């Protein structure tokens, strides 16, 4: 009986952690942070343009899914640059901005201000909302097309159906 | 404009066998069930079986993983499972199998040599991590492997 209760406690703890993780993973977080022009150049981008910056790593299936999301979203905002860089190739920037996980995506305004930070595969709808609010304004009606066109083809890791967030409506 | 490239895919393929991303999650679900039964009824023989499964996957490769082969069998027989939504290099999941082997083998050794509490506590860690992978897809072993790779590249 005691052993079963221990298992129940472990499963409950895992369930709570899973719920917390699911709330955070892929969601845009507002942070107070700024990339300098030198840092933007260090990751291979040009300063002065809005930027979706993804930090990747080898053996990272979610990184490929993230790249697909970023490419899909940026196709609708051609003025927004997209850069993916291996964390090992930008250690100074990684340390300066406390990047602990791959994929981590930063949404940068043209002046380097961090408008949002995402750990895990980004939610396309939230990313589009952020770009609409802070980035170059898309032509009228584009928001509706984002909902229809943007989707993640490859889940970061196949979540059970009940745990998956609903795709962009 | 996009500066993304296919270098990551090329890197992944250069790093060995690609596996269906659902495979580790399926294996974790079976591992969780096996270890829960072993833990509740304190069954060393069942724990030994799991140690063997981890060992085969870790040392021989995921191609030989018993649970992986069950998953492949089911994929062939059950069409609704469908093709892989994505693939990943086996390195991270294989490392997590090695960690599972170490913890369960250590737990078995300790439990059968006098200290049941400590031994089965080690097994409980694997139960928790298997549950996490099975329910959420979060592979702690894979994350540790990625961190280790990053640290190794940093120090080179």
Adjacency order of strands in the biggest sheet of chain B: 1-2
Low-confidence blocks of residues of chain B: 1-6
Q: Please give the most extensive interface between any two protein chains, plus how many residues each contributes.
A: A-B, 50 and 44 residues
Which architecture name of chain A does CATH use? Answer: 3-Layer(aba) Sandwich
Q: Which strand order spans the largest sheet of chain A, edge to edge or round the barrel?
A: 1-5-4-2-3
Q: Cα distance, first to last residue of chain A? A: 46 Å
Tally the structural domains of chain A: 1
Helix content of chain A: 40-55%
Task: Report what the structure shows.
The complex is a heterodimer of chains A (169) and B (156). Chain A has six helices and five strands; from the N terminus they run αβαβαβαββαα. In chain A, strand 4 (104-108) and strand 5 form a beta hairpin. A five-stranded mixed sheet of chain A has the order 1-5-4-2-3, with helices on one face. The radius of gyration of chain A is 18 Å and the shape is elongated. Chain A has 169 residues and is of the alpha+beta class. The longest helix of chain A is centred in the first third of the chain and has 23 residues, at 2-24. Chain A has one domain: Glutaredoxin. Chain B has 156 residues and is mainly alpha-helical. Chain B has one domain. Chain B has seven helices and two strands. Chain B has a two-stranded antiparallel ribbon with strand order 1-2. In chain B, helix 2 packs antiparallel against helix 6. The longest helix of chain B is centred in the middle third of the chain and has 21 residues, at 91-111. Chains A and B meet through helix 1, helix 3 and strand 3 of A and helix 1, helix 2, strand 2, helix 6 and helix 7 of B.
């Amino acid at each position: 009986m005691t052993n079963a209760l221990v298992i129940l406690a472990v499963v409950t703890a895992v369930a709570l952690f899973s719920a917390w993780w699911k709330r955070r993973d892929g969601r845009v977080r507002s942070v107070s942070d700024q990339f300098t022009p030198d840092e933007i150049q260090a990751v291979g981008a040009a300063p002065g343009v809005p930027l979706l910056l993804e930090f990747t790593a080898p053996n990272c299936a979610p990184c490929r899914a993230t790249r697909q999301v970023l490419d899909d979203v940026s196709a609708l905002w051609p003025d927004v640059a997209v850069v993916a860089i291996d964390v090992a190739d930008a250690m100074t920037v990684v340390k300066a901005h406390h990047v602990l996980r791959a994929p981590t995506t930063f949404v940068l305004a043209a002046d380097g201000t961090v408008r949002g930070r995402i750990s895990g595969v980004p939610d396309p709808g939230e990313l589009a909302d952020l770009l609409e609010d802070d980035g170059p304004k898309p032509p009228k009606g584009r928001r509706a097309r984002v909902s229809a066109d943007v989707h993640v083809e490859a889940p970061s890791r196949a979540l059970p159906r009940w745990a998956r967030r609903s795709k962009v409506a | 404009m996009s500066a993304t490239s296919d270098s990551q895919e090329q890197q992944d393929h250069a790093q060995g066998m690609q596996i269906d991303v659902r495979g580790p999650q399926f294996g974790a679900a079976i591992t969780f069930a096996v270890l829960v039964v072993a833990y509740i009824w304190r069954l060393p023989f069942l724990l030994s079986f799991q140690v063997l499964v981890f060992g085969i996957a870790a040392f021989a490769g995921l191609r030989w993983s018993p649970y992986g082969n069950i998953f492949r069998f089911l994929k062939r027989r059950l069409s609704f499972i469908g093709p892989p939504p994505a693939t990943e290099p086996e390195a991270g999941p294989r490392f997590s199998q090695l960690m599972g082997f170490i913890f369960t083998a250590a737990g078995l050794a300790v439990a059968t040599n006098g200290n049941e509490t400590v031994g089965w506590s080690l097994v409980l860690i694997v139960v928790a991590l298997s549950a996490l992978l099975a329910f959420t897809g979060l592979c702690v072993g894979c994350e540790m492997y990625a961190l280790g790779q990053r640290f190794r590249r940093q120090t080179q």
